[in-house]
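During the reporting period the student researcher (J.K.) took over the structure-prediction task from the postdoctoral fellow and processed the backlog of single-chain submissions. One of the processed entries is reproduced below for the supervisory committee.
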Amino acid sequence: MEYPGTINTGKAQARKVIGVADMALSRSPDELLVTYSLGSCIAVIIFDPLAGVGGMLHYMLPESSLDPEKAVKNPCMFADTGITRLFKSSYQMGAKKENLVVRTVGGAQMLDPKGLFNIGKRNYLAMRKIFWKNNVAIASEHVGGEVNRTVRLEMDTGRVILKVGNGAEIEI
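J.K. obtained the following structure tokens:
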């Protein structure tokens, strides 16, 4: 199904949906990795164009110390454990850190108009701290605000397509 403003590659691709507190990796050029309705959660999207390996993480909380038991059961729920897992899993598939193109999306201020919890901001700061400690550069990002986002990674090209709210799709 296409929506007004949809960027169409003209090629049918299988969608691999990444839910909340989940991640997926691929090396199939026939796949799209997609996550829907990012609010305060953050999607970390990585792609190694030389190895043809890509991945996406959709994490919801900044630090596994908030609930160590849940972190053991589902490391993708947290920035610190999920980001580590995403990168290490991509290396096991042949990606190299120096080739990775990293993009980030999300971290909105949702359902918290007075900023009592600041989950989106805390998620973003946790990610930036991890990236800074590990010398990871972000190629592009679309974060903050008060809007939900849907994002997909096209495995054949490495393009990342973003849809903000009900608006048109854009490449980031």
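The committee noted the following: The mean pLDDT is 91.
J.K. will present the remaining backlog at the next meeting.
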